[in-house]
Design goal:
alpha/beta, Metallo-beta-lactamase, Chain A, Arc Repressor Mutant, subunit A, seven-stranded mixed sheet, 20% strand, elongated, WH-like_DNA-bd_sf, Glyoxylase-like metal-dependent hydrolase (Beta-lactamase superfamily II)
């Protein structure tokens, strides 16, 4: 769940080289959910892959084209299809001739209260990457790592040559990810986090926030945070009996920006659905939740 961090001033539209093979361009879409905005990554030097081209914003598209210059783009890759990640794929493909590769398309009518994280109905990939499949160019290789949870179609991309992982929204550099049913799934998210914990990546490049230099420590902390939140929910239900989600959010998210409470409710719902699946909690006909 997003914390009370506020977006900070960061330069948008400028290519920042952060490793020998990786540059990033920040989109001008800061918000309480996107932090400083969505970071589009350019991988390679002589030829490129573009990861998470970002929102449908003319200034951001122009900045990407300027950063690309006359270099060929071999692939445009999307980690998932929320509207701050994939809508620029089609116009960027039209300008560069590069194929759109990566996650499967996904559109839901009910995707929670976050307008900035609605699904992108325009996303049409030329190729869907299965777990373990690779895309390569001059001096770079990207491998798809299936990480469902934040969305069912979420992929991370491992940069083999630098032992780095582009984590999209699965692991962010400033906050935990919102898990919003019906597509967001807490059980899947925790399994995906365990999968990352079992890896040996040296650095994460998230779509929001700074690079993560000690990724396994962060993943352990995020998994512990989810377990703590689950414990809060079960203790709340033990003390108060059958309860509605807004009452839980008001108690458990004191001090958090109230604008984030609706999204917090989605994550609480995701925990409750997971607890239901494990036989620990159940929803009554009146919409209240209780322990079994």
């Amino acid at each position: 769940m997003a914390t009370a961090h506020d977006p900070v001033d960061m330069p948008t539209g400028t290519l920042l080289q952060i490793s020998p093979r990786v540059g990033r361009v920040l989109a001008p879409n800061p918000s309480p959910f996107t932090y400083t905005g969505t970071q589009t990554y350019l991988v390679g030097s002589d030829d490129l892959a573009v990861i998470d081209p970002g929102p449908a914003d003319a200034d951001h598209l122009a900045a990407l084209l300027a950063a690309i210059g006359d270099r060929p783009v071999r692939a445009i890759l999307c980690t998932h299809t929320h509207r701050d990640h994939s809508p620029a794929a089609a116009p960027l493909s039209a300008q560069t001739g590069a194929p759109i590769i990566g996650c499967a398309p996904l559109t839901l009518e009910d995707d929670g209260p976050r307008a900035d994280a609605a699904f992108d109905p325009s996303y049409i990939p030329d190729r869907i990457l299965a777990d373990g499949e690779q895309v390569a160019g001059e001096g770079w290789t990207l491998e798809a790592i299936a990480t469902p949870g934040h969305t069912s179609n979420h992929l991370c991309f491992a940069l083999v040559e630098e032992n780095a992982l582009f984590t999209g929204d699965h692991v962010m550099g400033w906050s935990t990810s919102v898990i919003s049913p019906p597509d967001g799934d807490m059980a899947d998210y925790m399994r995906s986090m365990q999968r990352l914990l079992d890896r040996e990546d040296a650095v994460y490049y998230p779509a929001h926030g700074d690079p993560v230099a000690n990724p396994r420590r962060l993943v352990r902390g995020m998994m512990g945070h989810r377990k703590q939140r689950e414990g809060q929910i079960t203790r709340f239900l033990e003390r108060h009996g059958a309860s509605e989600i807004p009452a839980m959010v008001a108690q458990m998210y004191k001090g958090v920006d109230p604008r984030l409470h609706p999204a917090a409710g989605r994550s609480v719902l995701a925990h409750l659905i997971d607890l239901d699946g494990r036989g620990i909690a159940a929803e009554a006909e009146d919409g209240r939740w209780r322990l079994r």
